[in-house]
Amino acid sequence: MKKSLIVAAASATLCFANVALAATDQFSDVPAKHWAYDAVSKLAQAGIVSGYDDGSFQGERTLTRYQMAEIVANAMTKTDKATAENKALIDKLSAEFADELRALGKRVDAVEKKQGPLTIDGFAQYRYEYTKNPRLIAEDLGLAAPGAAGRADDKSASRTLLWLNIANEFDGDTYFHGILGVETLGGRTNVTSLQAWEANFNKKIGAHAEVGLGRFFPSLGFGTISGAPYMDGGKLSFGKAVKVNFYSVRLGDRSEITTSNPSGIFAHRTYNLGDVKFSLDQNTDMAVSFAQDKHKEMYNSAAVGLKYKGISDVVLDGEWGRNTADFAKTANGGSAPEAYFIRAKYKGANPFVVGSTGYSVQYKYAEPGFDALAFASPFAWNAPLNYTTVALGGIADNLKGFEVGFEATLAKRTIFNMRYDKLDRVKASAQSLATHDDQSFFTAQVTYIF
């Protein structure tokens, strides 16, 4: 299926962009008694739609406008199978969710079109970061080559990102998905990083399974453990009510990391990654995930998380993980490091509703060594570039404290987001890049979706 920019931003939970929140949380919920649910149920019974995102339609579950638009977009490709009554339902739904459909790159005014050409959409972002006590970065310790987008060893830095999402559906069962990112670090260098963060080919198998091959940016669980960009290999996904994702990929081009050769930070490692996601009830989602490198040196992690949406306009979520890899235990003084976050979000900035706002508060805790390479999701573990070199994701490593956040839609498709993290170092560690007790930072960004 065709992936939109916003789908990509949500699935790339480690994305360099550090977009404010996962896309499905940026869209307001469709009220439980909205007429669209009955309309979609009728289309599902008629075999016109099979569901949203993962191919499922769970009639008892409240959907966001984004998820509902995915269902409508699916229906719009199958009007040749629809009766006159069902076509009228599709037309009514497409009018209701027109803005969301445009953001997904779907044709609203030509529902008979079954397959579009190559599509390119994305976003542009300007981001400011202030880090009270910059961490040592990997290149300072000889652990990595200088980052292509520049260094961030000053207290303040600005970043500009252009993200392009590329999608093409070859037929009803085969599609390509790619992400190109161009990022610069302002005020320090004019060096620009142009990278292919994803480039994969995917084949659907039956109604609820697919295989993929190429470059992936894995998104696991609720973000405490995840994958990095530039992971090349294969993916297997299957399931409907219970969704399973598994990746077997390779990362890096340096020699093996050993006590005598610490510079092999990425180490040509093979990683096995995966998660299982399902709903406990109509308001509660659960995820179990894992990440492991071949020799269990840096990552041998597992995590479990919950998300609850049973309170009006509020989302509560949290996740706990543990890493038993050798390096992780060494960095934490011999015991396996743990990490967890607990977060509450009130409302959210809908990119199609000017003036809509959202607020969040989060407590985060991560012991040294849990996430030494910064593979966590920036949605769950926001961090400045300085803290996340070389992987440039989020980071769940040697920090504890609170984060408060605010976001607002300034203009249609334009979201402002800022977050302040009042953090401390969990403990001093010879292997940690955190050299100060105060780990506080501030980030602010403007994102334009196109």
Word description of this protein:
This is S-layer homology domain protein. Keywords: Signal. Pfam families: SLH (PF00395). With 450 residues, this protein is mainly beta. The chain has one domain (118-449): Porin. 14% of the residues lie in helices and 40% in strands. It contains 8 helices and 16 strands. The protein has helices spanning 5-11, 23-26, 35-45, 65-76, 84-96, 98-103, 326-331, 385-388, and strands at residues 119-131, 156-169, 174-186, 192-205, 209-216, 231-238, 242-251, 269-281, 284-293, 300-311, 314-323, 338-347, 357-366, 399-411, 414-424, 441-449. The protein has a 16-stranded antiparallel beta barrel. A hairpin with a 6-residue loop joins strand 9 (284-293) and strand 10. Helix 3 runs antiparallel to helix 5. The longest helix is centred in the N-terminal third of the chain and has 13 residues, at 84-96. The radius of gyration is 21 Å and the shape is globular. The protein starts with a helix and ends with a strand. Mean pLDDT is 79; it is low at 1-26, 52-56, 106-115, 141-150 and 253-266.
